Amino acid sequence: MRRLLAMALASLLALSALLWVLLRPSTSPPAEQFDVAQALGDAPSQGFARATKTRAFRFPADHGPHPGYRNEWWYFTGNLTT
Predict the structure, then answer these.
(1) In this structure, is the dihedral angle defined by the CA atoms of residues 77, 66, 44 and 33, taken in order, positive or negative?
(2) Each residue of 29-40: pLDDT tens digit?
(3) Given phi > 0 = left and psi -120 to 50 = alpha, else beta, which region is 7?
(4) Distance (Å, rounded) from C-alpha 5 to C-alpha 13?
């Protein structure tokens, strides 16, 4: 019985040590900060077309990328009824 208890305690101690090593917080600061403005492109938009008004879509040509624009953002908002 004592041998079983000793093995259980040793296993628990080993598991605790492993979890401590794997889950301990890092003491060093992150190597690089993430800049949202840079990721979204805060550079001047010279040389790119600007979406200033609604335009008519022409498929299938409008189904692909539009290289004249720096960013493309497509979304649809609607309601479904049954």
Answers:
(1) positive
(2) 767 777 777 777
(3) alpha
(4) 12
